[in-house]
Amino acid sequence: MEHLLTIGAFGGRCGLSPSALRFYDQCGLLRPVAVDDSTGYRYYSADQVPDAELVRRLREAEMPMAAVSRFVAADPIERVVLLDEHAANLEQRAASVRRAISEVRARLGGAEQEETWGCVVATERLAKALDEVRFAVGGEGRPELAVIWVETRDDSVRVVATDSFRLVVRDVVPSALTPETTIRAALPIAVADELRSTLAVASGVVKIRQTPGGAMEAEVGGRLMRLVTATEPFPDYEALLAGLPGGHRGVVSRHALVNAVASERGAAATLVLGGDGLRVRGGTNGRGGLVGGSWDGPALSVTVNPVFVSEALASLVGPDVMIEVSAALGPIVLRSADDGALSVWTMPIRPTQ
């Protein structure tokens, strides 16, 4: 496969993280040209770069997944029609364009920063990532959970939090990343909040590195912050995820699912997945609100805490959500992607008889 690109190399060319590329593969939107049967590694052709860049731009404009699929397959006239239909999202498109321009400006001065800093990230992106995972920070006598985990991996900056009932993983595409420099730091929530407050009043980029002693340093707006890290080891979440079985998947409208879950006032709600997509049914009535969407597996019902699911949906990005479930008592996975990917694992609750 020497003429093909690994997922990391391909993502570097088109501006998508490996996590985002895996998400688009799972959705059937951007398939690799080859997958190694023994390792599961994905390989792409350089000819796919224009299509991947097109998908990235359309998703930055918050075009729904179904519309992106139609756009990619459409002729030039049909593409104009699809863009006209999407004109209602003009303000969101403008915000995405402004963010893209900020990234380009940050990259113009990134060469020197790459030599001395582990990674460089747009302040807006890192601040948003910290916000998106904070709801899952734990505690309650478990100091190893009262942190936000930050690490560099795959061409991405990863931000993680868990309270043992929920796990949220956010991958962010950095402006620059030094491959030989590794950052692995657990920031106590007070320290993470201080960093978040500083990012809120800054613009441009934040530069991050880890000192030999294990502390993390961040330079924001000309200010050097020394971020003390936790001494308790963060849970090995990757080993946990590696042991989970793969599930069936569906894609639904995030807005519709938010409304359906919010309408359930009880302590439990049941997600009913089947041929008509997803239906949300409360614990006290049998009607259920139809969300629709797609589902690739057999009929399956899983009972969840609606508050947990609502908090997860509030943190997700973009108009669409992928939902993955392996069994009635297995974890529910909610995923979305824009410039990276965001995944939330939520434990179900045992339904009462």
What does this structure look like?
By secondary structure, this protein is α+β, with helices and mostly antiparallel strands. The protein has 3 domains: 5-103, Orthogonal Bundle (Multidrug-efflux Transporter Regulator, Chain: A, Domain 2), CATH 1.10.1660; 109-237, DNA Polymerase III, subunit A, domain 2 (DNA Polymerase III, Chain A, domain 2); 244-346, DNA Polymerase III, subunit A, domain 2 (DNA Polymerase III, Chain A, domain 2, Roll), CATH 3.10.150.10. The protein has helices at 7-14, 18-26, 49-60, 65-73, 76-85, 90-108, 110-116, 123-134, 189-200, 237-242, 254-262, 306-315, and strands at residues 5-6, 34-35, 42-44, 119-122, 147-153, 156-162, 166-172, 176-177, 184-188, 205-210, 216-220, 223-227, 248-253, 269-274, 277-282, 289-292, 300-304, 320-325, 332-336, 341-346. The strands form 4 sheets. Strands 9-5-6-7-20-19-18-13 form an 8-stranded antiparallel sheet, sandwiched between helices. Strands 8-4-10-11-12 form a 5-stranded antiparallel sheet, sandwiched between helices. The longest helix has 19 residues, at 90-108. It is globular.
Any chance you could write out the topology, listing elements then pairs?
Elements: E1 5-6, H1 7-14, H2 18-26, E2 34-35, E3 42-44, H3 49-60, H4 65-73, H5 76-85, H6 90-108, H7 110-116, E4 119-122, H8 123-134, E5 147-153, E6 156-162, E7 166-172, E8 176-177, E9 184-188, H9 189-200, E10 205-210, E11 216-220, E12 223-227, H10 237-242, E13 248-253, H11 254-262, E14 269-274, E15 277-282, E16 289-292, E17 300-304, H12 306-315, E18 320-325, E19 332-336, E20 341-346
Antiparallel strand pairs: 1-3, 2-3, 4-8, 4-10, 5-6, 5-9, 6-7, 7-20, 10-11, 11-12, 13-18, 14-15, 14-17, 15-16, 18-19, 19-20
Helix pairs in contact: 8-9, 11-12
